[in-house]
Amino acid sequence: MREEIELSHFVILLEGEKQLPKSTLKSIVGGLNIHINWGKNRQPRSLLNLLKQSFFYKGAMQFDSSQVQSLLSEQPPNCWALPVMTLTTIAVALPNIANQHVDELISSVDEGLQYASQIDVLDENHALRCTKNAATVVWVGIKLRKKWLDMDLGDKIREVRSTGEIIQGLADEAERIVKEFSSTGSQNLVENPLYWPVNVLAANSMYRISRTILFYYGNGEYQVEELFKKLICIIANILAACLTNLPHLIATKCINNAFEERFTSVGNAAILFGETEDIMKLFEERQLLGIGPSQPLCIDEWLRWMDSETQDPTVSTSVTHNGASSTVESNDELVIVPM
To answer: Is the CB of residue 224 less than 8 Å from the CB of residue 94?
Structure first.
């Protein structure tokens, strides 16, 4: 209890503020424990199951190939949520996947995006604001209606079209939206991603990611269940890398310059701590919290770090569930260790 009281001093009081009586601190600690328990009772179990399918090695987060030519001269910065949403959209659209598996994926990603969106907000890059909004707006259609913008991803499309046709259709529709914008918008608007509409940002992400998948898998037969698993694994990797920022998110919620609002902020941080306790335990077991760039807040920093860590472009090392390493020979960046 004494340690908890002392800790509640780094959380509640800022430097130079008057110390609180121990009786008050005991009351605060009791309240925080209640909040933590609330969080524990609503842990994101679907997300945790998804994260257990994550691996870290070369290509684990490579969802956008430099081999894909950009449709516009400028590219918006990535946020965590938008590529996760786009990859999930493609997975949802794949044919011959049981609805149960699709619904489980949507549920898992929905839980993950709730945290990813909060972490994205911590990034002070104002150019990310639009991509964050695009992910939030478009995800509502995926979650509630299985629709990407105006494109139906439900049973009808999956029954009448093959895997390659579906992904090509998504790429074509995305290209149409971006090119229509570039041909009708003013030059200043088109050249500044900060002012791109939500549908254009979403379409640009869809075009690049779907074309990346077609680039790597377009020359062979599509094994739809294998591709579905590969997409799940990439999604899990991105979310796992994103959620290594959870300690920073929790700490940030504890810091509020207005003393009157600090109790509420700390209470919210305690709930978040309880909710994500098992996720942090999983990361500790797999020693994931110590990897990555020194400041892992931004997804683009992660991608640059992974590029810098790559020494042999044909060999990748994965972390398996028991912590052992395995080497995978690969000529591309999207090969995933079979689950």
So the answer is: yes
Specify the number of domains making up the chain.
2
Mean pLDDT of 158-187: 87
The tens digit of pLDDT for each residue in 95-113 reads 889 999 999 999 999 999 9
Q: Where are the alpha helices (DSSP H) in the chain?
A: 2-12, 22-40, 45-51, 81-93, 99-122, 128-145, 155-160, 163-184, 187-190, 198-217, 224-243, 246-254, 259-275, 277-285, 299-309
Mean of per-residue pLDDT scores for the chain:
79
Question: Domain range for residue 278?
Answer: 2-41+245-285
Q: Which two tokens stand for residue 280?
A: 């942090």
Residues in the chain, overall count: 339
Same domain as 177, residue 304: yes
Which residues, 6 or more positions from 22, have their beta carbon under 8 angstroms from its beta carbon? 5
